[in-house]
Backbone:
């Protein structure tokens, strides 16, 4: 029985040695990727690829989106998300002037309590 597994063990040994050798360069490889990612002189695609490689190694690759089917075998309806840029016509100061301050709102919402001027000193 051991004789049958011998070729597989022989084939596995060089692969394990290669993996071990490759893993010994992990710190250097990570530093190289980080250097490429942070080097503004590098091509943007190279920086992006280095950043993606670091994220994949640190956090794992994102899982593919799950597909769901309803009981009748149909896919659920999609939800459309719309993102749009709107033109703002007022400045921040104009918006601030229209809004009540937090203190005004708190004063309106606070329950009426005893008058502090009635307390003995």
Residues:
């Amino acid at each position: 029985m051991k004789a049958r597994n011998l070729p597989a063990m022989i084939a596995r040994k060089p692969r394990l040695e290669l993996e071990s050798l490759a893993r010994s360069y992990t710190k250097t490889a990570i530093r190289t990727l980080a250097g490429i990612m942070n080097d503004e002189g590098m091509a943007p695609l190279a920086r992006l690829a280095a950043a993606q490689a670091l994220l994949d190694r640190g956090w794992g690759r994102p899982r593919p989106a799950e597909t769901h089917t309803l009981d009748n075998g149909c896919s659920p309806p999609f939800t459309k998300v719309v993102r749009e840029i709107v033109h703002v016509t007022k400045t921040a100061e104009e918006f601030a002037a229209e809004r009540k301050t937090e203190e005004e709102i708190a004063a309106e919402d606070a329950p009426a309590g005893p008058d502090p001027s009635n307390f003995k000193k």
